[in-house]
TrEMBL record:
Chain coiled-coil ranges: none
PROSITE patterns recorded: IG_LIKE
InterPro entries associated with the record: Ig-like_dom, Ig-like_dom_sf, Ig-like_fold, Ig_sub, Ig_V-set, Nectin/Nectin-like
Cellular compartment(s): Postsynaptic cell membrane
GO cellular component: adherens junction; postsynaptic membrane; side of membrane
Segments forming domain Ig-like: 16-109, 312-397
Superkingdom field: Eukaryota
Region annotation Disordered: where it falls in the sequence: 198-232
Function in brief: Involved in synaptic inhibition in the brain. Selectively regulates inhibitory presynaptic differentiation through interacting with presynaptic NRXN2.
Highest classification ranks of the organism: Eukaryota, Metazoa, Chordata, Craniata, Vertebrata
Keyword tags: Cell membrane, Disulfide bond, Glycoprotein, GPI-anchor, Immunoglobulin domain, Lipoprotein, Membrane, Postsynaptic cell membrane, Repeat, Signal, Synapse
GO biological process, one term: homophilic cell adhesion via plasma membrane adhesion molecules
Protein's UniProt name: Immunoglobulin superfamily member 21
Gene that produces this protein: Igsf21
Length: 413
């Protein structure tokens, strides 16, 4: 007797689709059994998902008795009504027949097929690396956007746009395994404001100083970091709203794409876009991250607008503070949508804070058991992100606490 088995190949399917596995076999022997297996763990485990035993089937015995030709063509199907990612993998169809010569010997043959289950990404988000971060008038800063795409299988294609136009970026290699941050560091040179370069550095070839910049031309935008230098900053620079960076006409973008497998079979993809930030042209620029995936009919996207903080709104509680109260001063928001997350710094104008510190970081400043001496004190909140900074002030008025008894000298007037 002879037996040939084949399984019809399947195109990739999407999670939730109904799938039918078809096993075709041709034989001139008597049917014994059909068994379907799902293969897992690299082929080490085979799980039965369907069994047909001809010894207990009247249908097949009738077909055998009424056979009009020498061989018959059979088809066994297994239907998966709603595939999941866990259904991804190889499947095998095993067929056994009785040998026509001996009627005791069983002839076996099998076929296999790989079911490729795709899943569209479930979430996409854009965030800024290393935030909150300060605004610097004195040194150009690298800025990195991170796009995180989760739930997809296989890994999606991720790319960035600026104001609706695709960004042409220089690709970077994947970071070494175990790297702590997705954001590339020390990629871009620190362009100094030309009004602040000390004369000792500006004088090229001055004796004893040498050339402060590398003699060999580095790749564009990848100049080596210089050692930190103490710079004398003219007071006139501080009053400018934005720095005047030494910039090329067009920013140079660097792109990195990485992906990591997740336990559920999907992939988390991360794409980073890094460039030297220029607050003059990047403030209010719209950046979008878009994702293409074979399981999506149209791209997914998430977008952010880079905006410096403007007009902080401050709330003080209680509104009428008395001696001994705990006062909380909180930044409730801004007049605009701010991205990336601002860094908040509190100072007391002309003096130190109540706890003796020069400044306090955070969205809220808490003054425990305020004394009468704080009446009329002014507090400054500086809100800043890499695109700019803004200050706002509030004055603390401390009223006498009626719950504190007066001393004898007070009662006698």
């Amino acid at each position: 007797a002879y037996l040939t088995v084949s399984i019809e190949p399947l195109p990739p399917v999407v999670v939730g689709d109904a799938v039918t596995l078809k096993c075709n076999f041709k034989t001139d022997g008597k049917m014994r059994e059909i068994v379907w297996y799902r293969v897992t763990d690299g082929g080490t485990i085979k799980q039965k998902i369907f069994t047909f035993d001809a010894m207990f089937s009247t249908n097949f015995s009738q077909m055998e008795n009424y056979r009009k030709r020498e061989d018959l063509v059979y088809q066994s199907t297994v239907r998966l009504p709603e595939v999941r990612i866990s259904d991804n993998g190889p499947y095998e169809c095993h067929v056994g027949i009785y040998d026509r010569a001996t009627r005791e010997k069983v002839v076996l043959a099998s076929g296999n097929v790989f079911l490729n289950v795709m899943a569209p990404p479930t979430s996409i988000s854009v965030l800024a690396a290393d935030t909150p971060a300060p605004f610097s008038r004195y040194q150009a800063q690298n800025f990195t956007l991170v796009c995180v795409v989760s739930g997809g299988k296989p890994a999606p294609l991720v790319y960035f746009k600026r104001d609706g136009e695709p960004i042409e970026a220089t690709p970077l290699p994947e970071p070494p395994v175990g790297a702590g941050s997705w954001a590339p560091r020390n990629l871009l040179h620190r362009d100094l404001d030309d009004t602040k370069v000390p004369k000792s550095l500006a004088a090229d070839g001055e004796p004893g100083m040498g050339n402060p910049f590398p003699t060999a031309d580095p790749p564009r935008g990848l100049a080596a970091e210089r050692d930190s230098v103490t710079e004398s900053i003219p007071e006139t620079v501080v009053s400018r709203e934005f720095p005047r960076w030494v910039h090329m006409a067009e920013p140079i973008y660097y792109f990195r794409h990485t992906h990591a497998p997740v336990s559920d079979g999907t992939v988390e993809a991360r794409a980073t876009l890094t460039w030297t930030l220029n607050p003059q042209i990047d403030n209010e620029a719209l950046f979008s991250c878009e994702v293409k995936h074979p399981a999506l009919s149209m791209p997914m996207q998430s977008e952010v607008t880079l905006v410096a903080p403007k007009g902080p709104k401050i709330m003080m509680t209680p509104t009428r503070a008395h001696v001994g109260d705990t006062v909380r001063i909180l930044v409730q928001g801004f007049q605009n949508e701010v991205f990336p997350e601002p860094l908040f710094t509190w100072t007391r104008v002309g003096s130190r804070l109540l706890d003796g510190s020069a400044e306090h970081d955070g969205k809220e400043l808490v003054l425990e058991r305020v004394p009468a001496e704080l009446n009329g004190s002014m507090y400054r909140c500086t809100a800043q992100n890499p695109l700019g900074s803004t200050d706002t002030h509030t004055r603390l008025i401390v009223f006498e606490n009626p719950n504190i008894p007066r001393g004898p000298e007070d009662s006698n007037g």
